[in-house]
Structures are given as structure tokens and as C-alpha cells.
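Model it.
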Amino acid sequence: DFGFYVDTRGGYFYIYPLESWYPKGEWGARWAPRVARCAISDKMAPGKWNYFYQGKWDQPALGGKSSIVGASYFWGILYSTKLQRYVSISPYNKDPWWPPSTYNVDGVIIGTCTDLSKQDWVWGHFPEGMHGFMKLFNATGDGIETCDDRLRFYSFFADNSYQNLDVTLMDAPMQVNQGTPRFGFQPNPESSDPILSRRTKMVGSASPEMKYAGAWKEKTNPKEYYEGRLRESSTADDSVEFHFTGPDIYWRALRSPESGQADVYLDGEYRKTVDCYSPRATVSENFVYLKTGLDPAQPHTIKIVVKGARHPKSKGNAIGHMAFEFAAESYRASAGFSSIMGKNQWRYLERAGGAEERLRFLPSDEVFTRDWQGEGAVRIGNNYQIPEVGHQAVRQWVAPHGGTVRIEGEVTHDPPGGTSARLLKGKEELWPTGSGSSAGLARHDLKIEVAQGERIDFVAATLKNGTGKVIWDPVITYTRSERPVFCPNPPSDENLALGKYARSKMLSFAAQPFQAVDGDVRTAFSIYPDDRIVSGDDWLQVDLDQPLTVDRYVVVSAPAVEGWRPATFTLQKSDDGFTWTDVDKVTVNRKERCERKVPAFTARYVRLYLPQGKPFTIQEFELYRDGGFLGGGDIMNRLEKAFRKILGQNRKN
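Modeled.
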């Protein structure tokens, strides 16, 4: 879903794509609009598109950074000669769930903009507006560029009886609320937008750090509310207060047909009256108030005071307080959960006896849900760990730098008595002091010193022959930070590319480049000779998530058709994913397993450049740092034998 507009007044063609992501611990997709443009004169000139980012058009549209420019879709834009502004109308809904029948639509948002080159949109939320999938035309329905004071509004799949509606703009006030994007409880760390990718600590309504005054009552809703609960009050002058240190503060509260108004105070000063009324929907995934740019070194206090007043159409005065977020270097297990080992400092392991193995990220039985799996029933998900008899499920956090950290969490054993939970720093047991078993809810809140690279283990194990799930979503927050020091990764036999994010020239589900870094030679990244989309050169690019040192690489390609094996390729490195430097070139490759030693280099991005393009098949692309310490010959022989054995079995099948 995207919008587009040809602006002949400014000379540019604009496209409004959606930045989409799937939080691993939540159901469904989240998305927000951004914008790219190219000059109309650059028609049929690839590479001329740029994203709008922090007020400038200097980011390449292929892989560059972008900013959110609206609160919803851009499905229709017109220039009104009456207003001398650009106009857009879109449905206003919470971050969408799937299927569409479950959309929680909340009227429309109306946007106006003076200059598309500035993207200075001002958004109003019109709760009573008709909604649906929309498109704007001029009054006669045959123009999509300009209108005067009349326009035609098309609505598809909406809960109304019309297909189009003729609108006349009049000189009269209209009551609207500010329209803001909706933000899920989990940020999108890959986004370049500062709010979507925010680094915060979220503190829920039940935290003892909340200072309530008045008759607040707890309400529960596991699906809609943060941590499944909120505190609600309708009594004037009831308040909730929270102390924090950092430059940014965000307040999450429920918006509903029964919600009222509240006054926001920051450091003792009145800042704003917030109206939480929403006529149709019950909306939890938004910030009703946010403030950035505070003094990061000073302590601050935010106070919310129930006003006892309401929107004229609201059915009540209720304020449903869910959470505060404040800027902090914080690592929550569920928010940082990823399909990439080591992403957001989290690793997923299994221990049996003295052996330790990495888990594999595999689909579970639930649609759109994934978890890490090991031997038998061992699994680790966004907020749970399932051990097996004799096999521990270990969620591990690796300190990115030294400092003091606070480790908070709640542990529930389901069923009680079958499992244990322990918190370790190396071999030192931090919590609990006993066996680790618990028949009910157990909490931990401790501060410790960590050095860069130290590992904190959250260990779930079975008791005797017991079984069960450990519900555990710990949060690690730095309260004192030391400057990180670059430390080269030590020599080891670890495949540095295993399980990392991989992409190709063509982002296609069918191609599946991640299958070249999954550690399984039975799967492959392939582009077939009859592919009608891909042409010219191609590549397989791996994001190592941080700068790592590499001195050996392996390309495994054993296709059924020998001509699909890449004969010519170049290993390249990059610090930013855009500027590439050659490391090694192969001009004639006839090996099913091509293994190359190269001078040691350090980079975050590594790619295999294929100048001849399709057709090709790559079973595995592996990266190592041997450092001259591994006794290469013996290890190479064992790897070669293992590869031959698996490949032979695969061909027989």
C-alpha cells in the first residue's frame, strides 16, 4: 500500500511507501508512511530517487534512511487552489492487525501541506469522519492533481453505504484533535526514524515506581494493555507521578469512547491538557503525550492529573494510565527478541551436562510466531523459556560495554513446581539464593557491575522429571555507563555469518537469501535462469550486526546443474552497506566447496558479488576468523567430510 503524486508545480514525482515490520512478540504487522522523490525530468533514470530524512532529501531510496511523515496511509493527495495547500485524507487506525476485518478504525485524519519539498504536514484527527480505503479526485472524478473548493472522496470496503462522496470546503471551524502515528509496545530497532527506533525503558502501571494519589483502580486486558493491565481513575485531581533521568519522556494511556481529559506537568510546570477520547475504537498503541530534548543529566518528574472533564461526545472522564517510557540504554528480552543470534545483545542457547549448543530459529505452530528451538522440547520465545529434562534453556545477554546495570524481572512457572529459574554472571549465581524453584510469582531487582563482553545467563531448567514453561521477560538497564572499547573478535571455529541478516539485489520471498546463512546445505539461495525480475549482476550481502574480523570464507554451491555454480565472484567489505571494497576475487571456480584464506579485515557488512548474475545456487556462505591458531588442516578435513556426507545423503533422497 502506497500513495504517489506528480507535483508539476515543484517538478517532482513523490511516492509514499510504508515502513513495515513484524514485532516477534506481538501479533500482526506495524507500519508507518515515509516518502521518496525524483525529479520529473529524471524519468527512466534509476538511482535518482532519494528519501526525505530529518528535513533533507539526501538519503538514497535504495537502503537509505527515512523519517515518518504522517500518521497513516497516503492513498490520495490533491492540491487545493482554494486553500493553496496540498490535502490528504486517510483512515486513522491503530497499528493494523491481520486480517483486515480486525482493523480498529477510528475516523479519519485530514492533512494539509504548504510545500511537498518540506513535507510540512499538519494533521488533524476527525473522529466522526467516514472511513475505509480511500482515494481523492477532483469534483468530477477525472482528475488526480488539483481541485478547487470541491473534491470527490472514494471509499472502498468501508462500513458505509456509498462508494463516493462529494465534499465542499467551507470557511468554518472544525473541531479536530492532533493526529499522531501509533507506536507498538516494541520499537523497531532497524528503523531510521528516531521514535520508531527509540531506545527507552518502559515502566508499566503496576510498577512500585509509580506514585499514585487518589482512587485509582486496576483493569486488565491481556491483548490490549501493556503487560495486560492499567490503572484507571475518573476523579478530578487524582494523579500519578514518575521520576526519571534522560532527555525524552513518553506517556501511554488508553483512548476510548469513555475516556476523558488530563493535565500534564513536567518538572512542576503545566505543559498540556490531553484529551484521550476516541469515538469508535479502544486504542492502546499510541503516545498521548511525549517530550524530547530535556536535559539528559538532570532528574525529571512527570505528573498526570485527572481533570474530571471530557470531550462533548465522550461517555466518561476516565483516564487509563498504562506506562511511561523514558530514554535509557535498556534491553528488554521481548523487545529485543530476534531471529538473528546476538541481535540486540541477546543469544539463545541450550546446555546439557558440560556442553553448550546454539539454538536454531524455526517456525512454531502459531501463525506469524517464531521461536528458537533445540533438543526435544527446548524452546525460547520472546518472553518464555521451555527446558527439557537434562537440557537447560538459556537466554544470554552480552554486555556491549562496562558499567552498572539494573536487572529486573518477574518469573512465573507454568505449571508450578516443574521448573526452576536462575540468574548467573559467569559461574556466579546472582538470583535466587536457593534452588531456583518457585510455586508462584517471583521477582528480582538487583544492581551489578559488568565488564564489556561479560555474559548474564537467564537459565530455565526442569526439576527432577518435571516439565513446563518459565514465563520470564527480564529487563537490563544501564544506570552507569563506560565508554565501549573496540575489541576484535577472538579466533574461533564459529561461523560469523550463521543466522545473520542476509539480502540480495532483489528482495524476493522466493529467492530467500537467508537460506545461504542458515547452516543447512539442504537449503539454498537460488536465482533461476527463467527469473523475469532479476537481470544483470547480483550479490549476497550479510550484515554481521557489528564490525567483526574475518580471514577466511567458504562458498558452498552444489547445484543439480553444474552451470548454476558461481564460477566468478568477488568478496567485498563495507562499513556502511553502500561503499564496497574488494577483498578477494575468484575467476574460475569448479569446487562444490570453495574455501579461501584472505588477509584479515574488519567490517560490519560482507558480500559475495556475482558479476555474471543468474542463474546461480548458493547453499552456504560462511565467514571465519582463524587467526592462525586453529590448526587449519585437521579442521578443514573434518568440515569437508561432514559436507560430503550431508550432500551425499541429500542427493540420494
